[in-house]
Amino acid sequence: MKRIQISILVLFTLLMGSTAFAQNPEHNSGVEWQSLEEAQKKAKETGKKVLIFGYADWCTYCRKMRKETYSQDTVQKSLDSNFIPVQINAESEEEVVFNGKTYKSWQLAQYFQLKSFPTHYFIDDKGEVIGAQPGFLPTDVFIPMMDYIGEDKFGKISFMDYLNQQGIKLDVDQE
Fold it and tell me: What is the helix (H) or strand (E) element at residue 98, kind and residue range?
């Protein structure tokens, strides 16, 4: 009987630890997330863009994005070159400042029309939204996308033309 109680206690401890670990927004990302207000200030000073990672704690693909994509050195190098990273929990009461106005995180998510998780928002150094990309992005897509936006190619050539110029071929099912 005592053995069963110990087993249950160990199992419970492991489950609680893994749940807390899985919900930690910093889990395995390796990214030094900034506050949105600080990121916009730095963007004005440096000319870099702000990349907002919109997520929810319960989102499996958000955790996957942190663990499999953001944790890659190549992603972090591309991110550091052109962006100041911010994460916004779309369901949080935390206050954030965007373009000088204070919002609850969930209010800002509504302002951005964040409806699927994760979604990445690209903001220029003037606080204008360049664009958004919903969904999990693997490294081989995310890096070229960040480079495309970071190099100010958006609006000038299509993303597919940019990829072709870079010699990058993506496997895309077109049905």
Answer: strand 95-98
